[in-house]
């Protein structure tokens, strides 16, 4: 899976990063986690927590990646259930600061939060036996490129857990390379992962949310 680096995609990422940085301190959790997610995807939050526990169980003491971390609302729960390092990243500087604060408030020394671009993750191939992506793929421009990076850093035998929203309004761009991920259907995401060689072992729907679990041979 490859995708050209375009000025449009770069501008979109900068804009989204700026918006979510401003939302991080006091708006994101009440409006999104406790608002729109519960309204449009009942049960999604519970499945995300389930994904985190499954990722921790699969990784054991090995590192986990979570991208994007957002405010860390769900990530701190995964880190608390994990005996190893959990690396979390987000393009929004405000989200990174907020997630670090959440980790400190919980006394979690195993949660490391970095600012990073979903299209260019700063990790070697196969670094993580478990990768989670919750509540953020829908706002990342260039869904295909972001998925390719998640697959690249996933270790052979590793498991990928995805939870995201999708609006039922047309198809967006065919492969999601430029349009926001919100316009990319769950079945398209599953198809892109299969094209990368992953095996899908679970797909679920919760309202407008799709929830995917896959493994890398």
**Could you report the average pLDDT, rounded to the nearest whole number?**
87
The secondary-structure element order is HHHEHEHEEHEHEE
Question: N- to C-terminal separation?
Answer: 17 Å
Q: From the alpha carbons, calculate the radius of gyration and give it in angstroms.
A: 16 Å
The residue fraction in helices comes out at: 25-40%
Feature tags:
217 residues; alpha/beta; 7-stranded mixed sheet; disordered N terminus
Characterise this structure:
The chain has 217 residues and is an alpha/beta fold. 40% of the residues lie in helices and 22% in strands. The protein is built from seven helices and seven strands. It has a seven-stranded mixed β-sheet, sandwiched between helices. α6 links the parallel β4 and β5. It is globular. The N terminus is likely disordered.
């Amino acid at each position: 899976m490859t995708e050209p680096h375009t000025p449009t995609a770069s501008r979109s990422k900068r804009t989204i990063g700026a918006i979510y940085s401003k939302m991080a301190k006091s708006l994101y959790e009440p409006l999104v986690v406790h608002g729109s997610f519960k309204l449009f995807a009942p049960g999604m939050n519970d499945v995300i927590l389930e994904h985190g526990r499954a990722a921790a169980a699969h990784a054991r003491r090995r590192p986990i990646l979570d991208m994007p971390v957002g405010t860390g609302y769900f990530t701190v729960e995964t880190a608390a259930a994990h005996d190893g390092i959990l690396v979390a990243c987000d393009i929004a500087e405000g989200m990174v600061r907020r997630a670090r604060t959440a980790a400190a408030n919980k006394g979690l020394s195993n949660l490391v939060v970095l600012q990073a671009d979903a299209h260019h993750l700063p990790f070697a191939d196969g670094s993580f036996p478990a990768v989670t992506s919750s509540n953020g793929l829908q706002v990342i421009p260039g869904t295909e490129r972001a998925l390719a990076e998640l697959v690249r850093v996933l270790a052979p035998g590793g498991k990928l857990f995805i939870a995201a929203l999708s609006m039922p309004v047309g198809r967006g761009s065919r492969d999601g390379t430029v349009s926001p991920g919100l316009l990319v259907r769950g079945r398209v995401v599953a198809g892109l992962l299969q094209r990368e060689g992953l095996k899908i072992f679970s797909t679920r729907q919760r309202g407008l949310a799709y929830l995917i679990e896959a493994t890398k041979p």
